[in-house]
């Protein structure tokens, strides 16, 4: 594809198509040790703490004016090169060492930002948007991180640094769907295996890695048990770990913040970003993304961040209940059943990242700017259904976000002159089982949810009073019978919908 380079302003042209640059390295969050990225690495070999990726030449990016970066990204929107259509629109900030040829693009990122319906806005009491991450290729936000992690593996394969990669992950359902999809795209170079807590992912989520051809292992227990097993596997066998422990996942998910900045025309004043927390990878990436754009002068303000947890899986919320930093102690919790099942995690792998990044975020903001709220299971379900009954397509975790916004508003953490952006982290369809249980009034007692009769919606079978007037695939009705059937059924529907005949 030939670019019409002369259509772009002269000062943008040299930056339009990025070339590999910079020097990425892993830095341990525990002991600050540094490691090169030419090897698959997930935790510090010295102290076992999680890692973050840094660019040794990050300061070079600050030599370009923030307003020039804005223009580069705005013009890059027009570029038709597939590798630059997803998260790598922000190549210099997302993975500057990756050549375009190694980038995997399956359509992830740049998800629609949809204004809340007028009814919803009025009900909640402020302007807000849903960012529809369910419109990613595997129908959740995890795809941004997978595009990054698999592009980095492809880069190592292309350089003959690794071969015969076995990708493994533990999952509450969405990580495995995403990992299996990206791995299968790179088949036969990569094979994948996913570990799921038995009966703790929805039928739709289970079908995804199966459909992508991954080996699927179901393990008794909860996600935290699966996570321990993949950690053991990755420490003792030559496998690539695709959980958010993998720092490339976090790096790729930073695109979420860049997309919001760009979609709101780089104006972060009075913006509030609301996100559900499970393993705490997403909130870590979001804080880091905004911090990087802020330090580069691409945005001149950091938006408020609100992390939301269910009362049935709230270790991060519990940690921050202690106002005095020095007195905070992290204690994993035993989770209870949650309809926000994808975020039902008692011992978040990225907790150390949250602690470091939230502190830096507040410091850079010059005030407390990261908050954590806890919501009930009832509120999660009721707000998810309310959102979807008003034109949205959010999963239960997106319902958790909205419940969190409502809670934050009631607590005075958010005011009516602010604008919130909520992550609908997955597509509603993935979690339709919970909607089904709610509508059928069959939610098991441990969830502590009582369906609101006004929200229940069930199909109604409309039949003829005459048992002979029942068409089937095998037995079609004769013309006159069909006429009677149509008239009777139409009459019954009209009555139910309180319609009066237009011929009367
Ligand atoms: C749909 C959905 N929402 C929210 C989360 C929580 O995100 P994180 O684990 O990055 O905190 C997950 C996964 O864990 C998820 O699949
Ligand atoms: Zn270390």
Structure description:
By secondary structure, this protein is an alpha/beta fold. The chain has three domains: 5-109 and 141-249, Rossmann fold; 113-137 and 254-455, Rossmann fold, CATH 3.40.50; 463-504, no CATH class. The protein is 37% helix and 13% strand. The protein is built from 18 helices and 13 strands. It has helices at 13-16, 58-61, 66-76, 91-94, 118-124, 142-158, 174-185, 203-211, 223-236, 247-253, 255-263, 281-295, 315-321, 351-365, 377-388, 396-410, 432-439, 479-496, and strands at 24-28, 34-36, 51-55, 113-115, 127-132, 165-170, 190-197, 215-219, 240-241, 271-276, 304-310, 370-375, 419-424. A six-stranded mixed beta sheet has the order 4-5-13-10-11-12, with helices on both faces. Strands 8-7-6-9 form a four-stranded parallel beta sheet. The longest helix has 18 residues, at 479-496. The protein is globular. The N and C termini lie far apart (63 Å). The structure holds pyridoxal-5'-phosphate (PLP) and zinc ion. Pyridoxal-5'-phosphate binds next to α12. Pyridoxal-5'-phosphate (PLP) is lined by residues 140, 172, 174, 244, 276-282, 342-343, 395, 397, 425-426.
Largest sheet: 6 strands, mixed
**Overall tally of structural domains:** 3
CATH class of the largest domain: Alpha Beta
Q: Structural class of the secondary structure composition?
A: alpha/beta
From the N-terminal CA to the C-terminal CA, the straight-line distance is 63 Å
Beta-strand content estimate? 5-15%
Number of strands: 13
Supply the CATH architecture of the largest domain. Answer: 3-Layer(aba) Sandwich
The coarse silhouette is globular
What is the CA-atom radius of gyration, in angstroms? Answer: 25 Å
Mean pLDDT equals: 96
The CATH topology annotation of the largest domain reads as Rossmann fold
Helix proportion of residues, in percent? 25-40%
Strand order of the largest sheet: 4-5-13-10-11-12
Which ligands does the model contain, each kind named once?
A: pyridoxal-5'-phosphate, zinc ion
Tally the helices: 18
Note poorly predicted spans.
none
């Amino acid at each position: 594809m030939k670019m019409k380079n002369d259509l772009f302003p002269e000062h943008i042209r040299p930056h339009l198509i990025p070339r590999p640059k910079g020097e990425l390295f892993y830095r341990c969050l525990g002991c600050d040790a540094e490691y090169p990225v030419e090897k698959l690495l997930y935790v510090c070999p010295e102290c076992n703490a999680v890692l973050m990726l840094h660019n040794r030449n990050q300061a070079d990016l600050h030599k370009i004016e923030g307003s020039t970066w804005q223009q580069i990204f705005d013009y890059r929107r027009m570029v038709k090169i597939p590798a630059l259509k997803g998260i790598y629109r922000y190549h210099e900030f997302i993975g500057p060492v990756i050549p375009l040829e190694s980038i995997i693009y399956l359509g992830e990122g740049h998800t629609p930002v949809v204004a809340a319906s007028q009814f919803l806005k009025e009900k909640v009491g402020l302007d807000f948007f849903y960012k529809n991450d369910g419109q990613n290729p595997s129908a959740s936000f995890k795809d941004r991180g997978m595009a990054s992690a698999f592009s980095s593996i492809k880069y190592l394969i292309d350089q003959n640094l690794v071969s015969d990669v076995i990708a493994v992950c533990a999952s509450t359902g969405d990580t495995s769907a995403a990992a299996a999809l990206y791995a299968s795209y790179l088949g036969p170079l990569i094979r994948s295996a996913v570990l799921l807590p038995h009966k703790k992912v929805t039928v739709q989520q289970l079908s995804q890695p199966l459909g992508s051809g991954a080996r699927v292992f179901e393990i008794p227990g909860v996600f935290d048990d699966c996570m321990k097993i993949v950690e053991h596997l990755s420490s003792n066998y030559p496998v690539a770990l695709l959980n958010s422990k993998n720092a490339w996942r976090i790096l790729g998910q930073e695109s979420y913040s860049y997309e919001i900045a760009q979609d709101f025309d780089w104006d972060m004043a009075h913006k509030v970003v609301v996100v559900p927390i499970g393993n705490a990878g997403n909130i870590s990436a979001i804080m880091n993304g905004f911090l990087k754009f802020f330090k580069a002068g691409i945005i001149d303000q950091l938006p408020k961040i609100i992390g939301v947890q269910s009362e049935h899986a709230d270790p991060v919320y519990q940690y921050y209940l202690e106002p005095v930093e020095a007195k905070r102690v992290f204690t994993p919790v035993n989770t209870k059943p949650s309809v926000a099942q994808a975020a039902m995690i008692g011992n978040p792998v990225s907790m150390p990242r949250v602690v470091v990044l939230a502190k830096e975020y507040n410091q850079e903001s010059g005030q407390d700017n990261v908050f954590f709220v806890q919501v009930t299971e009832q509120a999660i379900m009721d707000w998810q259904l309310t959102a979807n009954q008003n034109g949205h397509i959010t999963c239960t975790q997106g319902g958790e976000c909205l419940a969190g916004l409502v809670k934050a508003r009631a607590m005075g953490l958010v005011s009516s002159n602010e604008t919130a952006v909520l992550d609908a982290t997955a597509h509603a369809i993935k979690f339709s089982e919970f909607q089904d249980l709610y509508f059928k009034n069959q939610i098991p007692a441990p969830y502590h949810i009582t369906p609101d009769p006004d929200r229940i919606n069930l199909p109604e079978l409309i039949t003829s009073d005459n048992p002979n007037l029942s068409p089937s695939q095998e037995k079609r009705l004769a013309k006159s019978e069909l006429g009677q059937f149509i008239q009777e059924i139409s009459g019954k529907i009209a009555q139910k919908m309180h319609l009066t005949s237009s011929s009367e």
